[in-house]
Every structure is written in C-alpha cells, then in structure tokens.
Amino acid sequence: MAKLVLTNPAITIGGVDLADHVASVSLNLSYADVATTAFGSTAVTRVAGLGDHSVSLDFHEDFASGEVNATIAPLVSGTTEIVVKPVDETTSATNPQWTFTVLVTEWPLLDASVGDLASASVSWPVSGDITTATS
After folding, report:
1. Which uninterrupted H or E stretch holds 69?
2. How many CB atoms lie within 10 A of CB 125?
3. Nearest 5°: phi and psi at 125?
4. Among 4, 53, 67, 125, which has the minimal tally of Cβ within 10 Å of its Cβ?
5. What is the pTM of this model?
6. What is the pLDDT of residues 106-124, one digit of tens each?
7. How far, in Å, CA of 87 to CA of 11, rounded?
C-alpha cells in the first residue's frame, strides 16, 4: 500500500488555482443518522439519511489581483465549484479528483497578529454531492 505525504495537491476554487496559498484542506463526508427502529426491536437500527458534507481550508492570505482575497471575497453568500486532488498530476485510481459545489458562508478579511503570517481559515458546507473521478 502506497503512503502519501501531501506536498503538492491540486486545489482550484472557482476555476482559480490556489493550491500554493493553502496550508490545509479537509474534505468531509457526513450523513444524517436516521433511526429505523420499530416495535419489537431490542436495539436501535439506523440508515444513512441525507448527506451534509463540508470542506475546511486554511489559506495564506494574499491581496494581489487574481489571488486569494480577490478570488474568494466576491463569492461570499454565493456558490462556487471546488476541485481537489491529492497530487497535482493526472487523475487516476491512485490520484482521485473530487469536484463539488460549496456555499461560501464566511470569509475572514484579515486574521493575524504582529509578526504572524496573515491567514484565513474557513469551513464551508457542500451544496449537493461530491463527485469522485478516477480517470
């Protein structure tokens, strides 16, 4: 089994490659827990309900044209497509590509202390399903 040290992922937001400004990415699948327990049962039974997925990103802030703030700030309160791959190479079974739409619910315009790197950390809900491509 191949191990992966994440050093060169592909991350595009609204078609803009921002991987060189991302310090962390976390794509999460989550489903509602729906009880199906009926009379006569001696334990709770369950099925997966609706998906409620999310993505969390930690950015190194950049206010230049075409960079982080210029790309994301105009998207707040709207939706945009995000594409993530573990390695910035050809999509394959060992390098899947996840494509999804997020609702951009937040954007910290500035978050830094004296001497710190200006950063922005967000967690956005996925709107709809996450598509996985392996070729």
Report:
1. helix 68-72
2. 14
3. -75, 140
4. 4
5. 0.92
6. 999 988 999 999 999 999 9
7. 9
Rg (CA), the chain: 18
- Residue pair 28/54 in contact (Cβ under 8 Å)? The answer is yes
Contact between 106 and 55 under an 8 Å Cβ cutoff? The reply is no
**Cα gap 71→94, rounded to integer Å:** 30
The pair of three-digit structure tokens given for residue 8, joined into one six-digit string: 């060169």
Joined together, the tokens standing for residue 123 give 């967690």
Helix (H) or strand (E) holding 68: helix 68-72
114 contact partners, CB below 8 Å, separation of at least 6: none
DSSP state letter for 61: P
- By the 10 Å C-beta count (0-12 exposed, 13-18 middle, 19+ buried), 87 is classed as middle
